[in-house]
User: What shape does this take?
Amino acid sequence: MKVKKTIVLLPGDGIGPEVTRAAATVLRECAQEFHHEFDLHEFPIGGAAIDAIGTPLPNETLDACSKADAVFLGAVGGAKWDSLPVGKRPESGLLGLRKGMGLYVNVRPVKVLEPLRGISPLKPERLGDLDIEIVRELAGGMYFGERGNTTENGVERAWDTESYSTPEIERIATFAYGRAENRSRRLCSVDKANVLMSSQLWRRTVVAMSGVYSSVKLEHMYVDNAAMQLTLKPSQFDVMLTSNMFGDILSDAAAALVGSIGLIPSASFGTGAPLFEPIHGSAPSLVGTDSANPVGSILSVTLMLRDAFGLSLEADWVEQSLHRVLGGGYRTADIAQPGASTIGGSVFTEMLREEMQRTLEHAERYGWGV
Ligand code: IPM
Ligand code: MG
Assistant: This one.
């Protein structure tokens, strides 16, 4: 089945443009080999948009994203814009985009890639077969709550509020229960219900829904314990359901367990077009060194192919080829063993492209698509 899709690319800042190039290469290759029509359109966001247009989320960017079939984002932020106030920074472009596109679900799959087992900071017996999905609420909580600052009697005070409504919790929990049903049917809801009222409502709401998902084994964990358990025994988890803030923190911690934050993709869903982005930041110090790891970005493309376009054969093709490149020992600096040789991100992408060609030529031998 041939498809025609409009895809908006938002390269953003720092290494964002480099990893977006990798994503575009994979998408173009896929379109060419499978006779799909992917129209790729680039728009500015974040610091790049501040510099060019004076705002981190230009109207044309949001408009184009709303009309697209899928959106890919590289990364935003950087020291250059650090002195700007909250609300005017590159990050508010991304938050405005998530809000503006109605994206309330963010899924972050964290999985050991077999060839990279050795780079985990955990001992093999602790790492186990780590394969989890963090389902992070993306449109509420402290990120979007009431905030402000005042000065009284010469003392400055600032605040941000964590607040969730029952419907906001229900819609993200519905998604997480659904994911759990299709995986190992274990759902761990993370909160801080021993301290926060918003967490108490979170827990009550998740519990109230459990009857509908009777095949799913529901468990609750305080966020501090969840951080510890991720380090001690991460393979106990299957799907983790978290608020916006807790999910941001726990997903970086989980990423470290499989060796590098550069490996982790994400998919965001909501009322309109879905958005795909690696979870890493803009890493300004890597710019110009070609050492950014494109794997998180490439895996975000496989999520786009599979979950947004229903192209699972194509997604498998990219994924299997990627595993073989890694299996061949090719590594960007972040995933290399100390002293081992490394290749640049653009070279890695080129090797992947060649491997994808080989996979097509030897599909049967590789057990792909047959
Ligand atoms: C992430 C990032 C963003 C977030 C920043 C860049 C606003 O850390 O996607 O995890 O906090 O959500
Ligand atoms: Mg983050």
